[in-house]
Specification:
alpha+beta, eleven-stranded antiparallel beta sheet, 2 helices, 17% helix
Length: 163
Amino acid sequence: MKKIVLFLFCMMAFCAHAQQAVTKTSHRKAVKEDVVTTGTMTMRKPDYICISTDGDRDQLIMEGTKFTMTMGNKKHKTDSKKNPQFATFHSVLKALINGEPIPTGEELTVTTKGGQTVITITPAGKKRRMFTSFVLTVDAKTHAFKTLRMNGRKDDYTEYTFK
């Protein structure tokens, strides 16, 4: 009986997830006003994150090594095993979720200032990419996410602010 109770407790702890509010700001240089929507971020160990805004119309999902981004009716998929930019992003997110040290790498810059750690991922090379860089700001002590900014081409960006 003790083993069954322990097993159930472990399963509940594994399946438990954290959820927090998020605000998404989409900035397009060609458009006068930014588009701001709200939603939630759900996180589960070992490496699952779902950011959902605008009534689930827009989603950013990391499930293991797979990334899915849904914007309106368009769905973009990639895998960190095939995409070096997302491989670095995946390793950083997985380390933060699991309370591990932030990895180091050539494409990765980590700075800590004022109680916040800023992690910038800028891919090498000039290959055409959906994003030119990722900038993740986390609390230096708790590793709680503060902002995630995904910079696009021509000064466009999408920024998530976590509350």
